[in-house]
Amino acid sequence: MELERHDIGRGATAHIVVRGGLAPDVRDLPSWVIESVDGDTHITAQLADPAQLYDILDQLRDSGTTLLSLRLDLQ
Q1: CATH 1.10.8 fits domain 5-73
Q2: pLDDT at 3
Q3: I need a surface site. Which of 9, 36, 46, 75 has the fewest CB within 10 A?
Q4: pLDDT band at 20, cuts 50/70/90?
Q5: d(CA 42, CA 37)
Q6: Cα of 7 vs its chain's centroid, Å
Q7: Cβ atoms 58, 27 nearer than 8 A
Q8: Three-state SS letters, 18-75
């Protein structure tokens, strides 16, 4: 899925679920809400632009985290 800059506007929200916990090297941001549910980690992040989403996904990939789901709420 390729996102255009206009696809993610102010107030867009990413809902990300990863297997297990987050590695210590994953840098959480003030806009993140992190919860543990049934052994998996749920991240909700407010996005200003596509670069923020790609930064989060890059961090998760680089730490070896297994992505279970990603949902974007575009406003």
Answers
A1: no
A2: 52
A3: 75
A4: very high
A5: 7
A6: 16
A7: no
A8: ECCCCCCCCCCCCCEEEEEECCEEEEEEEECCHHHHHHHHHHHHHCCCCEEEEEEECC
Query: Do residues 36 and 56 touch, judged by C-beta distance below 8 A?
Result: no
pLDDT band for position 29 (cuts 50, 70, 90): confident
Rounded CA-CA distance 54/49 in Å is: 9
Per-residue confidence (pLDDT) for residue 9, from 0 to 100 = 58
Residue 68's H or E segment, with its range, is strand 67-73
> Which residues sit opposite 25 in a β-bridge?
none
Report field, pTM of the whole predicted structure over 0.70: yes
Structure token digits, residue 13: 């929200």
Confidence band of 7 (pLDDT split at 50, 70, 90): low
Amino acid at 69: S
Contacts of 6 (CB under 8 A, 6+ apart): none
| In the chain, where the domains are located | 5-73
